[in-house]
User: Which sequence fits this backbone?
């Protein structure tokens, strides 16, 4: 009998403290998991080095290549394990109190055949989404995402989507979150992304909720992160932050006739 949902945790062999943390957190939600041995960018095999040395990916750091290959390994496991869905975690996320209720409902409601990625993590950003609600589960709502986001800490894909992504891996030329969630830069063309709101997870380095305590888990990629665009000066960034709420409201009104809206990604940890 095909299992509906399997949880996969990506974890570097040397990050024992992160594994201990995630084991405790997932245990509280009664979520069993399969560990994916993360690819260590500082110790790539000859086959992995060949993937890295491809001219289309040489602008990426080895840590980013390791992260990308780790997610590819998780997709392979979804196919090999013959599950309906794979819930993929990186090992530095905080999870909402009602996460178990959400998973119990969402695996029965989302499509098993459509090529789509369900993004369940929070990122401070304003996004453009379709106004129509695509799915609901445990007081959460999924909307089709039409703008770009960073981060690949927590998402759900079905088996056909895993197969589709595996067929594209030689086209990838950007880090994993860009290939999945950046509508302008991804190498594989259109990919349907569902953003769940309020989001259910947040990576430790992005914690802002006063009810959460940061654990000091910094990115394993760190300074290797490839630049995907221009950065504003502090003055320009400050002005944008000041004007962003008004701009977001105005833009949302402007695109309303097209069935879209511009909103901040919402997040709620405790209920």
Assistant:
């Amino acid at each position: 009998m095909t299992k509906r949902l399997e949880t996969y945790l990506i974890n570097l062999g040397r990050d024992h403290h992160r594994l201990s943390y995630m084991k405790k957190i997932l245990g509280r939600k009664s979520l069993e998991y399969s560990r994916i041995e993360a690819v260590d960018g500082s110790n790539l095999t000859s086959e992995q080095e060949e993937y890295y040395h491809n001219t289309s990916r040489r602008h990426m750091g080895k840590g980013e290549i390791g992260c990308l290959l780790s997610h590819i390994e998780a997709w392979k496991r979804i196919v090999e394990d013959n599950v309906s869905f794979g819930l993929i975690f990186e090992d530095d996320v905080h999870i909402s109190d009602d996460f178990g209720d959400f998973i119990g409902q969402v695996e029965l409601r989302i499509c098993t055949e459509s090529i789509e990625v369900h993004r369940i993590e929070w990122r401070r950003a304003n996004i453009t989404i379709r106004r129509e609600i695509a799915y609901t589960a445990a007081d959460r709502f999924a909307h089709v995402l039409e703008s770009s986001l960073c981060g690949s800490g927590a998402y759900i894909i079905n088996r056909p989507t895993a197969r589709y992504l595996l067929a594209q891996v030689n086209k990838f030329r950007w880090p994993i979150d860009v290939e999945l969630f950046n509508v302008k830069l991804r190498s594989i063309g259109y990919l349907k992304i569902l953003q769940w709101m309020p989001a259910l997870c947040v990576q430790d380095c992005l914690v802002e909720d006063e009810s959460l305590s940061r654990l000091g888990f910094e990115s394993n990629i760190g300074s290797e992160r490839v630049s995907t665009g221009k950065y504003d000066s502090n003055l320009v960034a400050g002005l944008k932050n000041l004007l962003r709420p008004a701009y977001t409201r105005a833009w949302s009104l402007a695109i309303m006739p097209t069935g879209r809206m511009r909103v901040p990604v919402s997040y709620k940890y405790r209920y």
User: Anything to note?
Assistant: The CA atoms of residues 18 and 240 lie 35 Å apart. The chain has one domain: 5-264. The longest strand covers residues 5-11.
